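Q: Can someone sanity-check these two? First one:
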Amino acid sequence: MSNATYSAPRTPFEQQLSEIWSQVLGLPQVGIHENFFALGGDSILSIQIVARANQTGLNLTPKMLFQHQTIADLARVMAKEEAESAIEAEQGIISGPVVLTPIGHWFIEQQQPQPNHWNQAILVSVRQRLEQTLLEQVVKQMLEHHDALRLRLLQTEANSWQLTQALPDEEVPLTVLDLSEMPMAEQQTVFEEAVNTVQTQLDIVNGPLLRIVYFDLGHSRLAVC
């Protein structure tokens, strides 16, 4: 290969392939339009190139190398395949009946006296003040995206139970309490009362399964989920 015919890599794919070809073929540099077999490549060397490419995360097969014998052609095909594999189908919001899982059957069999209180609370410390409008949008998007947060446990006419996924409610299950002007001793009382109240507002039949309370204490900010 002469420098006059050398074409340098233009893309990350081409750069990676050029480096691999140079190493395997024992050449100082490989142009993107150079033919693999014209440079001395063969089936054994092609396997080495494929192996090294796979080790670096490139999805390359011997068939691709034999069909596209220059770096430019090979990189173009690989980029196209990567773009196609990255396309994700939008499923939209899911609603309707859901098969009751084994843990769901177990939960019903326990006949909990207060099934709505069978939940978990998480306390999160927030570093900076959050805007209520933005926080509402985040909670709304989270409920739309995570279908399990919209599950409902319903009793059928046959006196059996089934899960169903409800559509998102208009009401966002978020409460914002600004206690920044309140003495710290009173803050603790209001905090505990608010948390206990939220516990009573969870409903596995009618929803919601999730409620969030954002407390602005002035000296710190907390979120209870």
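And here is the second, same format, sequence then tokens:
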Amino acid sequence: MTSADGERLNQLIERAGPDVLAYFERRVRDREDAADLLGETLLVAWRRADVVPRDPVQARMWLFGVARGVLSNHARGVRRRLRLADSLRSQLELAAREAAREAPGGAARDAVVEAVEALPVELAELVRLVHWDGFSLTEAAELMGVGSSTARSRYARARELLREALDAGPLSRSRKLEAGSRLLSGKPRLSEMCPKSCVREVENLT
């Protein structure tokens, strides 16, 4: 590239650069992407400065041709990334569905989670503290800032509502008995049916 080529390109960029940036801004979502595309266009232009037309009008058209090629490459890259993301998302969703089907006690776990979610807020939290977090009823009462007698009455009400929900659910009788027996006999082991990841998800929802 000669000094004359460099000077001609500098003049072209000064005249047409803002228009090329606006061209990109109208065609991509983010202004930062538009600035990056302008940078790529100028880099290509500098590498090919020796072929910039001498006529100012033709030079401007040439620069927009370079910009169009850069934008086309960018669009292909975006589409490729979207296809890859869609493929990965589909694979993850399929793996999650298969894992859910294969998990032991999956139907019973789902029934218990749904039943707990449907409880009034203060009852649901009491159940979580006792059965998922391992606190005693007295400790749960202290954490919730209520008296022991209040906690006991709430716990009894929660068990009653959960029994009704499980009895009315779509599970088979054997699965209802499995979920209900764990829930209602002594201190049931809901943690077996609601692993930590499940617990966190339900807590976030409520």
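A (reply): Looked at the second one. The two ends are 66 Å apart (CA to CA). Residues 104-205 form one domain.
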